[in-house]
C-alpha cells in the first residue's frame, strides 16, 4: 500500500489529569490512557482496535475524532493534521469523520424522532435544505429500516433497530471514515449478526474506512482487515487479521485469544486444558509498570531467567518485527498458535 | 415452507420491544392523571381562568361601572354585592383575577425564559463561567424581594407589566439554579457527545438537546413560580405598591376592603377567596407535575 | 445414575404490572444430578435469570410463581422462609453477575465468608476464619491470610467474583447456581473466574446451573444445555447435540449468528426481527414471527418440548424433524436487513 493513508495516527498520547477531591483539586498525576501509539488506516479498510477495558482503545477512537485535544502526537486525516487546522476547517472535515456509539439508546436524544435524529447532522452543516427528507428516507432504507417509521421515537425501536438508526445518522454526511466504538456489544447475538452484515455491506457499497473498536475478538476477526491489540495504552501487536489470530507473537495477544471460549464443545474440551490463564488484573494506569507494561502478568516473563527479565523491566519493547511476520512489542516475541 | 430465503423482499420493520415501553409524554400524562388533587385543581383553575376572561367580558357590569345600588350585600342582581360607590364586586373580582393571572403568567414567562437560559449556559460551560453566573444568581436570591420591589415600583407609575417585570427580575434565579443542575447531568449524556462529534455548535447543543430534555423540571418550577408570583403581586398591591387604581387586582381589592371587613365583609372575602383558590390550585398542579415528571422525588424545595 | 438433587417442574413466573401481566417464565422443567453442569442460554428477556431466582425463592413478593421446585425431594415453592434460609446459601449456593450485590461493603471479606460458614455449621469463629482463608487460597487469591482482612472495594472485579465463589463453596453445597457470573468481566478475567467456578464445583462435587448468553462459555463448561426463548425452554439436550445438531430454528439461528474466532465465518446468519413482548404473547410458537420455517400451524399451536431422535434431546418445534443435518445458512437468509420479509 503505497498510496497516502486516509488516517494516520502518529505517536498519539492522551493523558487525563487525576485531581484530588476538595477545594484545591490538586493535580495528583495522570492517567496514561493512550501512550505513544501510531497506526495508519487506508480507504475502504477496517482496522480492528481490541483490548480489555481501560486499555485506551475507546480513547484512541475519540482522539481520532479530535473532539478533545490530544496531549501529544498527531492525527493526520487525508493529509491534514487535525490538531493544527482551524475550527472552521475542522467543522468541514468533521463531516467526513463520523462515529457510531456503543449504546444506541444513550446516543439518541429521546425527544427527537428518528427522522430528526438522522436529519440532525444535515441540519448542523446546513445541508438539510438541499438534500432534505428524501435523503433521510434513503438513509433509513439503506440501513434496512422502513422509511415509514421515521416519525417514531427511539424508545419504540428494539436495540438492533436503534443501532441501525445510529448508523444511518453517521452516514448522513457521506463520511469517508467511521469510528465504530463497540457498535454491537450492547446487542443480543442474534441481532448483532444483522448489524455486522450491514456494516460489511455498507463498506463495500460506500468504500468506507472503519476504525472498529471492540473487546469482542470474534467480531473483530470477522470484520477487520488488520488488527491492533492494545494493552494499558499501548499497541502491543499489529498485523493482518489472519496473521495476527493464527500466529500471534505477543504473550498478551496469545493469552487474550486463548481466553475466549469457542462455541464448539469438542474443541473447547481440548482448548480448556491448554488455556493460557494469566493471573492478576490490569495495573493502575496512573503508574504503569516500568519497561514492558505487561510484564507483571506475563506468563513468558515468569519463566525467563533473571538476566533476561532485566530487559523487560528496564526497556520498553518497541513495536517492531522480530522475525515473526508482523510487529509485536515484546523482547522475546515468538509465534504460538492458540485458536 | 423451509426453502432457502436468500432473496429478500422490500425491507419491513415494525418497531418492537420486549416489554412495552411508553413515551415520556405518555408516562407523564398517566402519572399526572393519577394525582387526583392535581387533576381537580387543573379543572378548577381552567374554570377560574375562563370565568375571569370570558365571564368578565360578558358580565352585565363592567368593573368600572357605577351602579345605582351602593353597598348592597350579595344578591341575584349583584352576586358578590357592591361597594360604597356602587361598583359591582363580581365584575371587579373578575377583573382583578384577570390582572393577577396576567401578571403571574408574565412573571413566569420572563423568569422562566431568562432563568432557563442562564442556568443552561452556566451548566453547559461549567468552570469559571459557571462560578460567576451562579454567584450572580445567588446574589439575586439574597435580595429581599418585597423591599426591592417596593423601591422599584414606587419610582414608577405602577403599570401592571412593570410590576411583573420587577418580580420576574427577582425570581428567575430559582429557575436558573434548577436548570443548571439538570443541564450538568444532561451534558454528560452520550447523545450530547454524539451531537458534538457531528460538528454541532454549543448553541445547537444547548437549544436542541439540553433545554428540550430539561423541560420537565422547568415546567414544574415555572408552575410553582406562578403561584408564588400571584402571592407576591397580591402582597405588593395590598401595600399599595403594585397595580394602581383605576385598574385593579385581587390584592388591591382586598386592600381597599380592609376597613370594611366587619361592615361589608363580601368586599373582603370574595377577592380573598379567589386569591387562596388560585394559589392553592396552582400549587397542587405543580405537585402533580413534579410527581409526574420525577416519581422518585417526593419533596421539593420551598 | 443417582437421584436428581434438583428437580424443576413446570415452573411459571409472572409479574403483574401496570400494563398487564408479564409472563416471564412459562413452564420450565429440568432435572439436575450431582456433579452435572446444566447451561441455560438465552438472550435478554428470555426468562433465564428469573427461572433461577424463582428456584432460590429470591423473587419480589409481587411475583406469582407456579409449578414445583424440589431439592432432594423437598418442595421449595411455598416453603417457609426459615426452611428456605437453611437451604439457600447452604445446600444451594448462588453466584450473581455483580459480585457487589452479594458482598457487604462494610465488612472484610474474610469475615463474610466466615459468617457464611457459621450460618450453616456449628463451628468456632476461629475455625470459620481459618476455613475462609483456605477457601480464598483455593480460589487462588494471592496472600489469602492478609487479603481476608481487606474490604470488597479493595479487590478488583475478577477477584471479588472469586471471593463470592469462595463463599458459595463454603458449605459444600449440592447445587451452585451461577447467573451470568462473567458477563461484566474482561475475557482474561473471565477465564480466571470460569476456572475458579470449575475448581469450586470439582471440590464440592456440586451440580451447577450456569446461566449465560455466551454460547462459548457454555460450550466449554456444560454437560447439558437448555435454550430459552420468550420465557419457554425451546431446546434441551447434551451439549454436543445442541451445538452440532440443533433441532429448533432458534438454536440453529443463534449458532449461525456467531462470528467465529477460529476464522470459519464467511458471512453471518442473523435472525431477523426481535423477541416478542412478554405482555401479550400471541398464540402459537413465540419464535414464529422471526422463523424462516414458519407455517400456518406455528401461528395457532405452541409446540411442546418433545424428544427428537437422540435420547435426552428435546426440542419445541413443529418441524424439528426437517432440521436434521441442516446448517444455519440453509435455513436463514444471510441478510443485513432488519427483518426479512417472508409471508408478512
TrEMBL record, chain A:
<dbReference type="GO" id="GO:0055085">
    <property type="term" value="P:transmembrane transport"/>
</dbReference>
<dbReference type="GO" id="GO:0016887">
    <property type="term" value="F:ATP hydrolysis activity"/>
</dbReference>
<dbReference type="Pfam" id="PF08352">
    <property type="entry name" value="oligo_HPY"/>
</dbReference>
<dbReference type="InterPro" id="IPR013563">
    <property type="entry name" value="Oligopep_ABC_C"/>
</dbReference>
<dbReference type="GO" id="GO:0015833">
    <property type="term" value="P:peptide transport"/>
</dbReference>
<keyword id="KW-0067">ATP-binding</keyword>
<dbReference type="InterPro" id="IPR003593">
    <property type="entry name" value="AAA+_ATPase"/>
</dbReference>
<dbReference type="InterPro" id="IPR017871">
    <property type="entry name" value="ABC_transporter-like_CS"/>
</dbReference>
<keyword id="KW-0813">Transport</keyword>
<dbReference type="InterPro" id="IPR050319">
    <property type="entry name" value="ABC_transp_ATP-bind"/>
</dbReference>
<protein>
    <submittedName>
        <fullName>ATP-binding cassette domain-containing protein</fullName>
    </submittedName>
</protein>
<comment type="similarity">
    <text>Belongs to the ABC transporter superfamily.</text>
</comment>
<keyword id="KW-0547">Nucleotide-binding</keyword>
<dbReference type="InterPro" id="IPR027417">
    <property type="entry name" value="P-loop_NTPase"/>
</dbReference>
<dbReference type="Pfam" id="PF00005">
    <property type="entry name" value="ABC_tran"/>
</dbReference>
<dbReference type="InterPro" id="IPR003439">
    <property type="entry name" value="ABC_transporter-like_ATP-bd"/>
</dbReference>
<dbReference type="GO" id="GO:0005524">
    <property type="term" value="F:ATP binding"/>
</dbReference>
<feature type="domain" description="ABC transporter">
    <location>
        <begin position="18"/>
        <end position="257"/>
    </location>
</feature>
From TrEMBL, chain B:
<keyword id="KW-0813">Transport</keyword>
<feature type="domain" description="ABC transmembrane type-1">
    <location>
        <begin position="97"/>
        <end position="286"/>
    </location>
</feature>
<feature type="transmembrane region" description="Helical">
    <location>
        <begin position="218"/>
        <end position="243"/>
    </location>
</feature>
<feature type="transmembrane region" description="Helical">
    <location>
        <begin position="266"/>
        <end position="285"/>
    </location>
</feature>
<keyword id="KW-0571">Peptide transport</keyword>
<dbReference type="InterPro" id="IPR025966">
    <property type="entry name" value="OppC_N"/>
</dbReference>
<keyword id="KW-0812">Transmembrane</keyword>
<dbReference type="GO" id="GO:0005886">
    <property type="term" value="C:plasma membrane"/>
</dbReference>
<dbReference type="GO" id="GO:0055085">
    <property type="term" value="P:transmembrane transport"/>
</dbReference>
<protein>
    <recommendedName>
        <fullName>Oligopeptide transport system permease protein OppC</fullName>
    </recommendedName>
</protein>
<dbReference type="Pfam" id="PF00528">
    <property type="entry name" value="BPD_transp_1"/>
</dbReference>
<feature type="transmembrane region" description="Helical">
    <location>
        <begin position="103"/>
        <end position="124"/>
    </location>
</feature>
<feature type="transmembrane region" description="Helical">
    <location>
        <begin position="159"/>
        <end position="179"/>
    </location>
</feature>
<keyword id="KW-0653">Protein transport</keyword>
<keyword id="KW-0472">Membrane</keyword>
<keyword id="KW-0997">Cell inner membrane</keyword>
<keyword id="KW-1133">Transmembrane helix</keyword>
<dbReference type="InterPro" id="IPR050366">
    <property type="entry name" value="BP-dependent_transpt_permease"/>
</dbReference>
<keyword id="KW-1003">Cell membrane</keyword>
<comment type="similarity">
    <text>Belongs to the binding-protein-dependent transport system permease family. OppBC subfamily.</text>
</comment>
<feature type="transmembrane region" description="Helical">
    <location>
        <begin position="37"/>
        <end position="59"/>
    </location>
</feature>
<feature type="transmembrane region" description="Helical">
    <location>
        <begin position="136"/>
        <end position="153"/>
    </location>
</feature>
Amino acid at each position: 500500500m503505497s498510496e497516502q493513508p486516509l488516517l494516520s495516527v502518529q505517536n498519539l498520547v492522551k493523558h487525563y489529569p487525576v485531581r484530588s477531591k476538595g477545594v484545591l483539586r490538586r493535580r495528583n498525576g495522570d492517567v496514561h490512557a493512550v501512550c505513544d501509539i501510531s497506526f495508519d488506516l487506508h480507504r475502504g479498510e477496517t482496522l480492528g482496535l481490541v483490548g480489555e477495558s481501560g486499555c485506551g482503545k475507546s480513547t484512541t477512537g475519540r482522539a481520532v475524532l479530535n473532539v478533545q485535544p490530544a496531549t501529544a502526537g498527531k492525527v493526520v486525516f487525508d493529509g491534514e493534521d487535525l490538531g493544527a487546522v482551524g475550527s472552521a476547517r475542522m467543522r468541514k472535515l468533521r463531516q467526513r469523520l463520523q462515529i457510531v456509539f456503543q449504546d444506541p439508546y444513550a446516543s439518541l436524544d429521546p425527544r427527537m424522532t428518528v427522522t430528526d435524529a438522522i436529519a440532525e447532522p444535515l441540519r448542523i452543516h446546513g445541508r438539510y435544505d438541499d438534500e432534505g427528507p428524501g435523503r433521510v428516507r434513503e438513509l433509513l432504507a439503506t440501513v434496512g429500516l422502513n422509511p415509514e417509521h421515521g416519525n417514531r421515537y427511539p424508545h419504540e425501536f428494539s436495540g438492533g433497530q436503534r443501532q441501525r438508526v445510529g448508523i444511518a445518522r453517521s452516514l448522513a454526511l457521506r463520511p469517508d471514515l467511521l469510528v465504530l466504538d463497540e457498535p454491537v456489544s450492547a446487542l443480543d447475538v442474534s441481532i448483532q449478526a444483522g448489524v455486522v452484515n450491514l456494516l460489511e455491506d455498507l463498506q463495500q457499497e460506500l468504500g468506507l474506512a472503519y476504525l472498529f473498536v471492540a473487546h469482542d475478538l470474534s467480531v473483530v476477526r470477522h470484520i477487520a482487515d488488520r488488527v491492533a491489540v492494545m494493552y494499558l495504552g499501548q499497541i502491543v501487536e499489529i498485523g493482518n487479521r489472519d496473521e495476527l489470530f493464527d500466529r500471534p507473537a505477543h504473550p498478551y495477544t496469545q493469552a487474550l485469544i486463548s481466553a475466549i471460549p469457542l462455541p464448539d464443545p469438542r474443541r473447547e474440551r481440548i482448548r480448556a486444558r491448554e488455556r493460557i490463564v494469566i493471573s492478576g488484573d490490569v495495573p493502575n494506569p496512573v503508574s504503569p509498570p516500568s519497561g514492558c507494561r505487561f510484564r507483571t502478568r506475563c506468563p513468558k516473563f515468569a519463566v525467563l531467567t533473571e538476566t533476561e527479565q532485566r530487559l523487560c523491566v528496564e526497556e520498553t519493547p518497541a513495536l517492531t518485527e522480530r522475525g515473526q511476520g508482523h510487529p509485536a512489542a515484546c523482547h522475546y516475541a515468538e509465534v504460538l498458535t492458540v485458536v | 415452507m423451509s426453502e432457502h430465503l436468500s432473496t429478500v423482499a422490500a425491507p419491513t420493520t415494525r418497531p418492537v420491544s420486549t416489554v412495552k415501553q411508553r413515551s415520556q409524554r405518555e408516562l407523564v400524562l398517566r402519572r399526572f392523571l393519577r394525582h387526583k388533587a392535581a387533576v381537580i385543581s387543573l379543572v378548577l383553575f381552567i374554570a377560574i381562568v375562563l370565568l375571569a376572561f370570558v365571564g368578565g367580558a360578558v358580565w352585565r357590569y363592567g368593573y368600572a361601572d357605577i351602579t345605582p345600588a351602593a353597598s348592597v350585600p350579595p344578591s341575584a342582581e349583584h352576586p358578590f354585592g357592591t361597594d360604597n360607590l356602587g361598583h359591582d364586586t363580581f365584575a371587579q373580582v373578575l377583573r382583578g383575577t384577570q390582572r393577577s393571572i396576567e401578571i403571574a403568567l408574565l412573571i413566569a414567562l420572563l423568569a422562566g425564559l431568562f432563568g432557563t437560559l442562564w442556568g443552561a449556559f452556566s451548566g453547559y460551560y461549567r468552570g469559571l463561567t459557571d462560578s460567576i453566573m451562579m454567584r450572580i444568581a445567588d446574589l439575586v436570591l439574597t435580595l429581599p424581594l418585597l423591599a426591592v420591589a417596593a423601591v422599584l415600583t414606587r419610582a414608577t407609575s405602577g403599570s401592571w407589566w412593570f410590576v411583573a417585570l420587577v418580580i420576574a427580575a427577582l425570581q428567575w434565579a430559582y429557575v436558573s439554579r434548577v436548570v443548571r443542575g439538570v443541564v450538568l447531568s444532561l451534558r454528560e449524556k452520550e447523545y450530547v457527545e454524539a451531537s458534538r462529534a457531528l460538528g454541532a455548535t454549543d448553541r445547537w447543543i444547548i437549544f436542541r438537546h439540553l433545554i428540550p430534555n430539561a423541560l420537565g423540571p422547568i415546567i414544574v418550577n415555572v408552575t410553582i413560580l406562578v403561584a408564588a408570583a400571584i402571592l407576591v403581586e397580591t402582597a405588593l398591591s395590598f401595600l399599595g405598591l403594585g397595580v394602581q387604581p383605576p385598574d385593579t387586582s385581587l390584592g388591591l381589592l382586598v386592600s381597599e376592603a380592609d376597613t370594611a371587613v366587619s361592615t361589608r365583609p363580601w368586599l373582603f372575602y370574595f377577592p380573598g377567596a379567589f386569591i387562596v383558590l388560585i394559589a392553592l390550585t396552582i400549587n397542587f398542579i405543580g405537585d402533580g407535575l413534579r410527581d409526574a415528571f420525577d416519581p422518585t422525588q417526593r419533596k421539593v424545595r420551598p | 445414575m443417582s437421584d436428581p438433587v434438583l428437580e424443576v417442574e413446570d415452573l411459571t413466573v409472572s409479574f403483574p404490572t401496570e400494563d398487564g401481566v408479564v409472563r416471564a417464565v412459562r413452564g420450565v422443567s429440568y432435572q439436575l444430578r450431582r456433579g452435572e453442569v446444566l447451561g441455560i442460554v438465552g438472550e435478554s428477556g428470555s426468562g433465564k435469570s428469573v427461572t433461577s431466582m424463582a428456584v432460590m425463592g429470591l423473587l419480589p413478593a409481587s411475583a406469582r410463581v407456579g409449578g414445583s421446585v424440589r431439592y432432594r425431594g423437598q418442595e421449595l415453592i411455598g416453603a417457609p422462609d426459615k426452611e428456605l434460609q437453611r437451604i439457600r446459601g447452604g445446600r444451594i449456593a448462588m453466584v450473581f453477575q455483580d459480585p457487589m450485590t452479594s458482598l457487604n461493603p462494610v465488612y472484610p471479606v474474610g469475615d463474610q465468608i466466615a459468617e457464611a460458614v457459621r450460618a450453616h455449621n456449628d463451628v468456632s469463629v476461629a475455625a470459620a476464619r481459618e476455613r475462609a482463608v483456605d477457601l480464598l487460597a483455593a480460589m487462588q487469591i494471592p496472600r489469602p491470610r492478609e487479603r481476608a482482612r481487606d474490604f470488597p472495594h479493595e479487590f478488583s472485579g475478577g477477584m471479588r467474583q472469586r471471593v463470592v465463589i469462595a463463599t458459595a463453596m463454603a458449605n459444600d453445597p449440592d447445587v451452585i447456581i451461577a447467573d451470568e457470573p462473567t458477563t461484566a468481566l474482561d475475557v482474561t478475567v473471565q477465564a480466571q473466574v470460569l476456572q475458579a467456578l470449575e475448581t469450586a464445583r470439582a471440590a464440592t462435587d456440586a451440580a451447577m446451573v450456569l446461566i449465560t448468553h455466551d454460547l462459548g462459555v457454555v460450550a466449554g463448561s456444560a454437560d447439558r444445555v437448555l435454550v430459552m426463548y420468550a420465557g419457554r425452554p425451546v431446546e434441551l439436550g447434551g451439549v454436543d447435540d445442541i451445538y452440532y445438531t440443533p433441532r429448533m430454528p432458534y438454536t440453529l439461528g443463534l449458532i449461525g449468528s456467531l462470528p467465529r474466532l477460529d476464522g470459519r465465518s464467511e458471512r453471518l446468519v442473523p435472525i431477523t426481527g426481535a423477541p416478542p413482548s412478554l405482555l401479550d404473547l400471541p398464540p402459537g410458537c413465540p419464535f414464529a414471527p422471526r422463523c424462516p420455517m414458519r407455517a400456518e400451524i406455528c401461528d395457532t399451536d405452541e409446540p411442546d418440548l418433545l424428544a427428537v431422535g437422540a435420547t435426552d434431546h428435546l426440542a419445541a418445534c413443529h418441524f424439528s424433524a426437517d432440521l436434521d443435518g441442516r446448517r444455519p445458512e440453509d435455513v436463514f437468509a444471510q441478510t443485513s436487513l432488519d427483518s426479512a420479509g417472508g409471508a408478512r
